[in-house]
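Example for tutorial group B:
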């Protein structure tokens, strides 16, 4: 029997396998018509006397259900409509739960959002032990809350604290851990998943939770002792107050979904399951129309689209296969790249450094990450040892002759990098790709040393490589498309979101970050207290304040990059006077324990002596938090717009992804281009003009902003402006920066 996307297979033992398999879709999602389908199917299995128990599973090879269809949610434009969708979801889930015959979910692959909510509504859950099986309620990452009963069923099943943790972070839980948490009832190999689920279903005949007494039934379970505790008003207050305090430390009130999740769970505990569902539906509707949800959903679509982007416009160009990667430099970056290449991309690496100590410390770094995963039980000892064998060390070029790609991560010295290009061309294959992990040197300059400049490219990773999700690939005018496509493919296999940008000083990411950090330095020079600047930017949504970040990156490094930027872009990147005094005072930041902040055993906080070094005599209290935030953020956004106008970026989408995943631009603002679209180009332009008048030409608006403010175009959407067409007079010269 078949309904749209759901089939019923009746077996001889009285078990019906209800299989979800939406035709023509890569994954099952819950679409607008899913409720009707679910209702019909469950009516039909309930009324069929031959069916005694039901197993609900997926017909997709490696996924269960990926949640509600986000494209459908994106089109909702009223809170009422959102609330209606959630209430419909409740209807479907209640239908499953109230089925008098046992319903057991057999889960293989992702069960996320509405997908997990379907499983939670079933009477028991069996999961496969595959590493593809992941369970989670990631709605908050989309600016939403679980809207199909998840906020009520999850806390009752696994306890309030772990449920809040899952919902507030959106984390995905592997099967083994899910079993420990009580989220699933059994974990078995995929080959016996259906059979086990069928056995569980048959064993449950006659002991069904009665309709309408869900909470009482669950309260009898050991797993919910904590829930029972949470019924005590004092315990409950502590629990929720703590959760909210913890949350605000991280979100600073910028993520309304997380706040509402806490409210809705609390309502369910205080006023009962149905009141909880009502609050959930209202909250879901409310959140669905917030700008935060729109922006966070846009990030989902941007990253999904990037997964399919080869990095070049010619769709005929395919990436070449990579069997081996050569890595030059075994420092933190080199070793980090070696790790993601072997452990994530599953490609062996030959790791070279100048001397044995260098190689050893690189290998130790890789081992450290692997050991960490072993401790967290993500790898067995044997898997860890096998993985370690995939990175071999050397102090010579032995073993580089058959590398398909060589990535260099040595000192930022142009001569050294050019020498490496020559060395690799000497020892390597004719078509070996030479990729530089430089964060500041023009790739065009490095390529000048090459006999095959079409094989030279930039692969700019972020530190720590195994944690940072972005890879910025830099192409010169000469880089061949197959080289770009091959490196993009490598980056994706390493688990990265990959954007491709044109060569130019600072590429995209370093170029947009520099003026924001420079603006923060201007504010310090004006006497604005350092903690006030950092706090204003944390409140705006950045994960680290710009002054703290300067300390982390290194004040000396910042000064060096600043000089390069100023050389290329002139006045607008000029640092305030006095910054050199910090270097003269040997303040290099966290690395030598002397910077804007105190380090070591000393008390944390700002090192007040820094003001004296800078010649700042009195605190300037006249600059508001709002002005700090606008000044710093606009420097970032305006420079991003220049990159767009000059064609450094291929699209606004790439600019948003690069800013969010590489630089911590607040995800709920969607990236600099979504930000402009949302605030309005006219408003952004107006603010820049006002600041330009007051503070000088570093706030001169990017030509593309003037253009779209005039034409009414946007960066995204149907009336979007195209990249690379608004150089105006702001274009920097070819990447000639001297370093
Ligand atoms: C929710 O559930 C609300 C409920 O609580 C309330 C209901 C009332 N929607 O990423 P991939 C598509 S909110 C639409 O390349 P991967 C994706 O676009 C939802 N499309 O694969 C792509 O399509 P195409 C909560 C979706 O293996 C294809 O599937 N759920 C959805 O790298 C392959 O995707 C989430 O937030 C969706 N929900 O990653 C999960 N999911 O090829 C969102 C997938 O045509 N999804 N697609 O472009 C993900 O995080 C990843 O897609 C996933 C797979 C981890 C599942």
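The residue assignment follows.
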């Amino acid at each position: 029997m078949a309904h749209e996307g759901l089939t019923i297979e009746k077996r001889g033992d009285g078990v019906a396998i209800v299989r979800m398999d939406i035709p023509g879709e890569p994954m099952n999602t819950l679409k607008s018509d899913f409720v009707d389908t679910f209702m019909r199917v469950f009516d039909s299995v309930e009324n069929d006397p031959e069916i005694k128990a039901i197993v609900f599973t997926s017909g997709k090879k490696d996924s269960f259900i990926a949640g509600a269809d986000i494209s459908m949610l994106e089109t909702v434009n009223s809170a009422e409509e959102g609330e209606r969708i959630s209430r419909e979801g409740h209807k479907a889930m209640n239908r499953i739960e109230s089925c008098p015959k046992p319903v057991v979910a057999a889960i293989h692959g992702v069960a996320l959002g509405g997908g997990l909510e379907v499983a939670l509504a079933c009477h028991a859950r069996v999961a496969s032990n595959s590493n593809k099986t992941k369970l989670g309620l990631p709605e908050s990452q989309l600016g939403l809350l679980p809207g199909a009963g998840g906020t009520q069923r999850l806390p009752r099943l696994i306890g309030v604290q772990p449920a809040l943790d899952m919902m507030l972070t959106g984390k995905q839980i592997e099967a083994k851990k899910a079993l420990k948490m009580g989220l699933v009832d059994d974990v078995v190999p995929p080959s016996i998943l259906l059979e086990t689920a069928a056995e569980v279903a048959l064993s449950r005949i006659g002991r069904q939770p009665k309709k309408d007494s869900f909470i009482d039934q669950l309260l009898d379970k050991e797993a919910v002792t904590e829930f029972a505790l949470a019924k005590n008003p004092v315990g409950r207050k502590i629990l929720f107050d703590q959760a909210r305090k913890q949350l605000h430390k991280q979100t600073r009130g910028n993520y309304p979904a997380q706040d509402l999740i806490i409210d809705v769970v609390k309502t369910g505990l205080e006023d009962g399951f149905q009141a909880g569902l009502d609050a959930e539906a209202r909250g879901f509707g409310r959140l669905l129309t917030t700008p935060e949800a729109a922006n966070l959903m846009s990030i989902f679509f941007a990253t999904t689209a990037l997964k399919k982007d080869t990095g070049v416009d010619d769709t005929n160009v395919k990436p070449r296969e990579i069997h081996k990667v050569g890595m030059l430099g075994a420092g933190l970056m080199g070793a980090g790249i070696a790790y993601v290449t072997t452990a994530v991309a599953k490609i062996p690496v030959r790791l070279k450094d100048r001397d044995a100590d260098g190689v050893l410390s690189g290998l130790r770094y890789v081992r450290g990450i692997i050991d960490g995963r072993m401790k967290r039980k993500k790898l067995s000892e044997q898997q860890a040892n096998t993985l370690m064998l995939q990175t071999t060390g050397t102090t010579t070029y032995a073993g580089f002759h058959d590398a398909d790609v060589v990535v260099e991560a040595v000192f930022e010295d142009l001569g050294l990098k050019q020498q490496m290009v020559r060395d690799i061309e000497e020892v390597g294959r004719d078509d070996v790709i030479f990729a530089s992990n430089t964060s500041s040197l023009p790739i065009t300059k490095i390529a000048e040393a090459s006999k095959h400049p079409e094989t030279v490219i930039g692969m700019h990773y972020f530190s720590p490589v195994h944690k940072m999700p972005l890879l910025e690939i830099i192409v010169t005018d000469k880089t061949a498309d197959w080289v770009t496509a091959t490196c993009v493919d490598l980056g994706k296999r390493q688990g990265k979101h990959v954007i491709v940008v044109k060569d130019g000083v600072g590429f995209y990411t370093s170029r947009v970050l520099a003026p924001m950090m420079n603006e923060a330095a201007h504010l310090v020079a004006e006497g604005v207290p350092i903690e006030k600047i950092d706090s204003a930017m944390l409140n705006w949504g950045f994960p680290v304040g710009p002054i703290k970040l300067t300390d982390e990156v290194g004040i000396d490094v910042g000064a060096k990059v600043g000089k390069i930027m100023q050389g290329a872009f002139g006045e607008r990147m000029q640092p305030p006077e006095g910054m050199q005094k910090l270097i003269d005072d040997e303040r290099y930041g966290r690395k030598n324990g002397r910077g804007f902040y105190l380090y070591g055993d000393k008390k944390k906080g700002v090192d007040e002596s820094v003001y004296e070094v800078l010649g700042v005599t009195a605190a300037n209290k006249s600059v508001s938090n709002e002005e700090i935030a606008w000044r710093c953020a606009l420097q970032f956004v305006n420079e991003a717009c220049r990159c767009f106008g000059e064609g450094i970026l291929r699209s606004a989408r790439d600019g948003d992804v690069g800013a969010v995943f590489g630089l911590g631009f607040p995800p709920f603002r969607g990236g600099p281009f979504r930000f402009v679209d949302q605030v309005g180009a006219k408003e952004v332009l107006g603010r820049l003009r006002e600041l330009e008048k007051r503070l000088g030409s570093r706030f001169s608006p990017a030509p593309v902003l003037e253009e779209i403010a005039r034409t009414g175009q946007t960066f995204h959407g149907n009336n979007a402006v195209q990249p690379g067409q608004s150089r105006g007079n702001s274009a920097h010269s070819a990447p000639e920066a001297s370093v």
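Confidence is low (pLDDT under 50) at residues 210-224, 730-739. Compare this with the pattern of hydrophobic and polar residues in the output above.
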